[in-house]
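does this look right to u?? adenosine-5'-diphosphate version
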Amino acid sequence: MATVSAPGGTATADAQPLTDGFHLVVDALKLNDVQVIYGVVGIPVTDLARVAQASGIRYIGFRHESDAGHAAAAAGFLTKRPGIALTVSAPGFLNGLVALADATTNCFPMVQISGSSERHIVDLKQGDYEELDQLAAAKPFAKAAYRVDRVEDIGRGVARAIRTAVSGRPGGVYLDIPAAVLGEVVDAATGAASLWRVVDPAPRQLPAPEAVDQAIELLAAAERPLAVLGKGAAYARADQRVREFIETTGLPFLPMSMAKGLLPDDHPQSAAAARSLALRRADVVMLVGARLNWLLAHGEPPHWNPDAKFIQVDIEPTELDSNQPIAAPLVGDIGSVMEALVERAKPGRIQVAAGWRQELGERSAHNAAKMADHLDADPHPMQFYGALRAIRDVLHEHPRAYVVNEGANALDFARNVIDMQQPRHRLDSGTWGVMGVGMGYAIAAAVESGDPVVAVEGDSAFGFDGMELETICRYQLPVVVVILNNGGVYRGDGTNAASADPSPTTLMPHAHHDRLIEAFGGKGYHATTPAELTTALTEALASGGPALIDCVIDPTAGTESGHLTNLNPQGVTAPAPDTPAKKK
Ligand code: ADP
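got this back:
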């Protein structure tokens, strides 16, 4: 317990030790094993960061609250404990809200702690400094939002936020602490007595035995079963149990992008290279920590077999039946469900027909050969495939490295080319397909693990949070940012038939992003061929320090909206999309 002397004076020998809201917040976080706070300081939380640092909590200061929030969310995903983001009042709080909403959408546990202005002035709209009813603003975007109105409730507020963020379906929690509460002084013993440590913040949730048997029956009767592993399965840290179930049953599996590496991508049961066929043909599908949302075409034909029966393993009962009838609901935490499945499925009860394995195997081999042709071609200017093959091969030498990935084409291509061998080593745009998460995720991965991080970024995506290069350099983090630079949103060859301004999708051609990191003392590289990229990435990873590789890609490479062209509405009177400039 930290103490302060009586405000406005020095402590006398018999003065009662005092504490205040700042210290109590930090003490409550420490008591609950928080080791890192990601944030941006300012009124009224600057001293909170100072007190946290003095207490041994690591404070990572960002340039924008959204990035700090994304870092906290990624920390939550990687550690299964809530990441903490610290923001200032009104505008800073609102900047952080995107990340809080995104964390909730991704089911990542985090707590955004924000200072706020004087309650009584805010509530009467008298026009306070940075006046905003933050609690009301946060509610629609968070799993839950709480406010601490009295210093003696700080311990309760922190405990409640932590419990809510990680228990059940994880998500983002907002904790509002007005400036007056942070500055409130209380005697140290009373303050200490008001704090508590959350016991078992994410209790196991066991599935009912009959639900487990029902799922086993369905799988046993299947002709073409399939397991889909989602980021919930990666988050659950039940790696061994998931693997044991998949391997003892022989089920073919498809990893969603952030579940890549839960079982290695070169696992013989992976059906990733035959994804479309697997979805179209599977007759019993077991979803493990994966929602049947847009990323899985809502389980609908023609992408899916119209007669497919679904088993869904999820901690959130209301998720079930959200898109398709769930024939076998398995509600519980993934570790407990997998354990029960292994225990209750008699050896040999679930068999995978040789014909189905062969069908998937043949399609996988066919698609892998097509992919190898793309990867082996070495055209100039460099294409996405050439660059990604170089990155993939260097990463094979660095199995501990984390991969962060965002962009449109940069995401779609990289997801397929860069294989993962370790669980929870890939962080990407996630459920919203959002841009601007990359630097926050990369910083969190480096801070939480100490291992190298390679952030594979589209040039447009990088623009959202590029100033965090300064943060990466300031903390000397082992982050290498690779920008797949084709000079545009989607692609860089658009001409504007409508006006003299650059087209909506055009970014600065020939931009040297490598010079940005040099401004902060990091190492910049410029690569125009896969060979140069290989050399640069190898050297950057060996150095262990911050680096950025500007990787020049053909501006005509990539398609508008990447793989999501179908989501662009086509207006009858809308102008034609940017006309690609003729290649000289
Ligand atoms: P993906 O995008 O990889 O398909 P989603 O984010 O759609 O994955 O799905 C993750 C699911 O995992 C969510 O429905 C969430 O409720 C669930 N989930 C998260 N943690 C656990 C857990 N420990 N046990 C069971 N389900 C979980």
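The radius of gyration is 25 Å. idk if thats expected tbh
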